Amino acid sequence: ENVILQVNRLKTHFFTINGTVPSVEDVSFTVQKGEKVAIVGESGSGKSVTSLSIMRLLSEAGKIVNGSIHFEGLNLVEASEKEMQRIRGNEISMIFQEPLSSLNPVMTVGKQIMESILMHQKIGKSKAKQQTIELLIKVGIPRAEKVFSSYPHLLSGGMRQRVMIAMALSCQPKLLIADEPTTALDVTIQKQILNIVRELSEKEEVAILFITHDLGVVAELADRVIVMYAGQVVEQGDVFTIFDHALHPYTKALLNSTPKLDFTQEELVPIEGTVPSPTALPTGCRFFDRCKYAAEDCKKEPELVEVSQAHQVRCWLINKENAKTVHV
Ligand code: SF4
Ligand code: MG
Fold it and tell me: Could you give the CA distance from residue 124 to residue 126 in angstroms, rounded to a whole number?
């Protein structure tokens, strides 16, 4: 088995004074060793809550109410906080959009990475320093010695994100979860960071779970794509299937609203409307209000069905009678 992460029927709800917010409903997917998987969706799709559920870093109101998350055989939903700390520090790393908030402002970049290395390996300080410099070079930082002794706020956004990636790699994780890590950066820097992530993943065999709202980013990086809408997976498949043979009306609309890399597209069509609030979902298909194919049938909830090898879609248009429902 090459599966490193298996999320099965994950359901995460938030319990607030104003009621229960069902942010993630019945989400299933797997990540293989060294695979690069992108979860794509607009804000409110549940993609960040999915990644925070995996890390067990939900706010106090958030609770996994159903499903399992197996990481190398261990069900993270049932793991103790102590086990989770070991997993977070050693096996799964996470990087976020704003690295400044995860870096210590009063400690030099080099020292922070060194500390992390010393926590995970039984080696001396000079060896740890050497490894830190190597990591900084690996993530494409020029003049690594100088950056080593810099404070985070003195670095540019792109440099800080590289430092975060170096930090995330310092524990030699098997899985790196990246939640919109390039969103705040300009396009050129964004491309550089994506290249670094891709190369590292390929060289070091780190699996990547990349959370983004940007299909352009998906095209640059992903082997496989999971499209989420209003807390559910609406389509998933390999990157070529999703870009060339998307079937779900939402995926198609997303593609039509995204500039193509080769500029072959005639016109960008923005998707009208917004993702429904999880507390005010339409009955039946959650895309109903924004779908130009919506019909009477769609007032019943569609299931995720496998339409061909490793290609799954949740839509009545596609859901033929004999298609088999996916229950992983
Ligand atoms: Fe549109 Fe109906 Fe398919 Fe939903 S089930 S995406 S409303 S066609
Ligand atoms: Mg998010």
Answer: 6
